Amino acid sequence: MPRMTMHDTDIAFMKMHGLGNDFVVVDERGRAPVVTAGIATKMADRHRGIGFDQLAVMRDSDAADLHLVFYNSDGSLSAACGNATRCIARHLMEETGKAEVLIATDHGLLPARDAGDGLTSVNMGHAQTRWDQIPLAREMDTLELPIEGGPTATSMGNPHCTFFVEDAEAVDLAARGPEIEHHPLFPERTNVQFAHVIGNNALRMRVWERGAGITLASGSSSCATAHAAHRRGLVGRDVTLHLDGGTIHVRLAEDGIWMTGPTAHVFDGVWRG
Fold first, then answer.
1. 105 - beta bridge partners?
2. Running along the chain, 273 residues long, what does each successive block of 10 average in pLDDT?
3. 159 φ, ψ to 5°?
4. Residue 62 burial (CB < 10 Å; 0-12/13-18/19+)?
5. What domains does the chain contain, in order, with CATH numbers?
């Protein structure tokens, strides 16, 4: 095959996923930013573009090994994306030979480390539960919101609304997800989870992501759901979550919420618009 000629407008990318929660990753370290909301939206189209749940942009950081900026598939920005952070942490560890790295996000500085057996852990920071931190439209108890089903609200740098139900698999996620995402209590919209207890410190969870829709997994949603379940006395501090895309472990520690799971670097490519 003839070698592909690169053009000035081409954007090299990596395709990664964590438990089927998939990402396009663009490395902008050492150069001027090229990704915009418009480009992200075009890349997100699974028929005419590349397709992803989130796009992560790697940029230089004075405070950490790198800085990540996250776009949802609708072009909106998100301060946090746990599975993408784990995937890029694994890439960075392989690139540098380090067993621990520090990643800057708009949510804060997130330590990550090799957890052994091909698994990667990232500390997603502390959950926030005050109404104005999430944020909600007005002051209220975030443990049980005045929405049918009494969900719990949590922030992991992005807003989450978690319903605890009898059977998460019986929920019409395609209908309920967007309805709750755009609920007037959430001025910045929200991620939505439905979960039920399936065993000792084990949850079954399904996810509707703000700006992305139904996803096979979500790291920040896993952390928010584990924290919400612990607040409600349903689980302890070490929680296993079974998502549509696989299993992830969350530990509610003193220094933050650690999330551990597998990552995959699927392929590299070039975007030509």
1. 108
2. 62 97 97 95 96 97 97 92 96 97 95 97 97 98 98 97 98 98 98 98 97 95 98 98 98 98 97 86
3. -80, 145
4. exposed
5. 11-123+262-271 (3.10.310.10), 152-254 (3.10.310.10)
